[in-house]
Specification:
Blueprint: H1 15-44, H2 47-57, H3 61-80, H4 86-114, H5 119-141, H6 148-169, H7 174-199, H8 205-232
Helix pairs in contact: 1-4, 1-8, 2-3, 2-4, 3-4, 4-8, 5-7, 5-8, 6-7, 7-8
Amino acid sequence: MNEYAQALTVSQAEPSERAAFIRRTYAHLAGAVLAFVGLEIYMVNSPIAQMLLNVMAMRFGWLLILGGFIILGRLASGLASGGASPTVQYAGLTLYVIAESVIFAPILWIAVHFSSPEVLPMAGILTLGLFGGLTLVVFTTKKDFSFLRGILSIGFMLAIGLIVCAVLFGFNLGLVFSFAMVLLASGAILYDTSRILHNYGPDQHVAASLQLFASIALLFWYVLQIVMSFSRR
């Protein structure tokens, strides 16, 4: 959810240019999702996922992985935006997809080996359904959801604080937290989609796809946790 200073935004562009921007953005998003799926298939079926799971099992292992992910995420977002060359923008998107793949590998390994076979497909379908519905809301209403910025900022800071406390003091955040994070991720999708249509420049489709991919990944993470939890029950 970065701020971009552009002489011309997508909302001010010609309809044909605006349509081309939207096509490029969602095509790159689809490519990022497919690359993510391919990387996860490889990691889950190799020793990498188990190795990362062992790191997470260490007392501060999850904090190390989370901290590294936040640093790489900021670096990737910076590379993908700010008027960088196409090569640098694609490097940022690629780096972010790899970072997400690393952080997801342990939970997907658990889902594959300790949950019922329908868990992953169900979580994927629910995530895509929610994303599609929220995207449709923005495109049909054309509403500016920039007012969500403050709410999302506070929400994410509280969430990170709770995650850190849970790791340090060894308590489980539970289903209520997962449902709250699904709501927060849904708000992020509304905000990011709105920002893309109103504030991004026509040449920032790579950065736009990265922002959407980040929000989808967050949504999928907590939808998967909820589905896994009910599957165990």
